[in-house]
Amino acid sequence: MNPIVWFNNRFIPLSEANVNILTHALNYGTGVFEGIRGYYDETQRDLFLVRALDHYERWKKNCAILRIDVPPAPADLVELTSELCRRNEFHLSVYARPLAYKASARIGVAPDNNDAYAVVVIPFGVYLESDQGIHAGIVSWRRVEDNAIPGRAKICGAYVNSVLATDEARRNGFDEAIFLTESGHVAEGATCNLFMVRNGQLVTPPATDNILEGITRASIMELAKNEMRLEVLERSIDRSELYQADEAFFTGTAVELAPIVKVDHRNIGSGQIGPVARQLKSLYFDATRGRLPQYARWLHPTGVHTPSLVTA
Ligand code: PMP
User: In the CATH scheme, what is the code of domain 134-292?
Assistant: First the structure.
């Protein structure tokens, strides 16, 4: 697969979108990325990007933390992503990976203003199989602290934290990792946010517990409040509370909604997928496929069956 990507302000094949070995971002982790899904809908014969504007707004704010400049406005970046889908004639579901980075090729950590960005869109399906529910394990690595490397910023270097956690979890036989914070509270998964259902309330760790403030997390909170009239709380969660939860699940662009049926070899609730997770998963599926008109505002049509508009 060699799709057309946006790199160095041009549309070129992915195989030609390469960087120098001394690139600052490659050596020091000074990149900021995003992950955006697009779902193809057969009925409407179009590919819809999910909350693409929110993702690009978050990206630009996160880039500002590392002082990386991405000149285009978020709406133009959404249009660029749509154009990539059209050029590649993607009539299937996709994942878009915008990446902004410190581009100078030299030795030395001091950053300069040589910033670059790229957008890659590739076909994408299920990321984490969760039809039977998954078994998560709390890992020995702690979630990166905001005053060390801000976890909310989706900084490339910070993902070493997620890589270490995923490696440990998988080698120990779990499907996915759960991070605790340095203070011992439940933070999130390696690439996803975490929710539990306890005493009829939907609870998720607050933004101040070193989580990435997920866009799927926000969508699920909105669906839970509006469509299920659930009380949703953002508060710290103890490890042992999670063991006693009635239900738990992960959310994220890639994992979508993944029900957790076991944590650390302990059943969550009945050890089966619970009713809240099941209903929210189905609501999220319908909302992201354009089947719930009240959430059509989350979707951006790419127009993949119309000819390319840009000729750059
Ligand atoms: N936490 C981490 C560490 C992540 O990498 C992601 C994926 N972006 C998430 C949570 C979920 O965020 P979102 O719903 O915006 O994809």
Answer: 3.20.10.10
